[in-house]
Amino acid sequence: PDDGTAHNGLPEEVSIGPRASFSVQVKDLVVPYPVMALFVLPSEEVELETIFERPGAEYRLLVEDGEVSESEEGRWLWTAPPEPGFYPLVIEGPVDTVRLHVFVQQPFRNGELVHNGYRIGAYQSRPLRGNPRFNAPEGLIEVTEETASIRVSPSLTLGSFASHQPGNPRFMALDERLLIKLEMILEHLREEGLDVTTFTVMSGYRTPWYNASIGNKTRYSLHLYGRAADIFIDEDGNGRMDDLNGNGRKDVGDARVLYRLIDDLEDHAWYQPFLGGLGLYGPKPHRGPFVHVDVRGTSARW
Fold first, then answer.
1. In the prediction, which pLDDT does 12 show?
2. Which is it for strands 97-104 and 35-40: parallel, antiparallel or unpaired?
3. I want to staple 189 with a disulfide (CB 3.0 to 4.6 A). Which of 17, 22, 194, 287 is the partner?
């Protein structure tokens, strides 16, 4: 509509820049981007707070669903709707906005092998070495043809991470921390001179059932928890890693360039909440080289 509002009554998303003029503290994360997904359970309470904002500036939380029960300057308590679905929130500042694309998940119980007709399989009953990031998910995101195209970060969509396991709808888990990490990596690559707009996610979420069906023996793969992505850069759109080292070939050397640039971030203090695994993989006949990244909370290399 000409009045600048979307069909849900919230301001229309016009353009996505690299960072917003302020950040939003939500859960245990700081969101510095103008759009980011948030995954919650039905009726979950979510605290929101603007930080790094302009002194004296006013900020408004715009909602269409759910309930705002507490509100003060730059701080709100929002209760998610009881029904699963997509519920965007907008925090409006004096210069720009931050859009939180909230997905209320379908509750999930470990041992529920089939979820709404979609085969899931069983998660391990205990987390690996007591690490809570290996706990079975309490909820799963419903992925339909409509929601697959929704941005979960400035450069990536929900469908980028959905399992290759067929179904309509599909269900998946996804960690917001992984999204922020990938966006920070993209920023670093651009600062280092790479002309890159996004990552191709070769493999994101996998159900335990699908992971086993393709021959993977790892029962604690971070892919099962929505905390890992196998990525490559494909700006020319041919489905393979681009020639990042400029030698005229597309081989493991290009994945090594990406690997080293990501590894450079480990020593930065601000990167510590995003520590995880980093793996290098060369090409095979059916695919090109790629790099694995995850957010397990500890550093691992292979």
1. 58
2. parallel
3. 194
Residue-level pLDDT at 3: 32
257's enclosing H/E stretch is helix 252-263
State both tokens at 196.
């890159």
Within the chain, which residues score under 70 in pLDDT? 1-17
Predicted local confidence at residue 5, as pLDDT: 35
pLDDT at res. 8: 47
Rounded to 10 degrees, the C-alpha dihedral 63/66/71/75 comes to -70
Residue-level length of the chain: 302
Stretch (H or E) spanning 280 = strand 277-281
Q: Measuring CA to CA, which residue among 110, 97, 99, 166 is closest to residue 140?
A: 110
CA distances in angstroms from 202 to 89, 134, 211, 278, 287, listed in the order given:
29, 22, 14, 15, 9
* Coil, strand or helix at 262: helix
Read off the amino acid at residue 173: A
Q: Are 295 and 275 in contact (CB under 8 A)?
A: yes
Q: Phi and psi of 49, rounded to 5°?
A: -150, 135
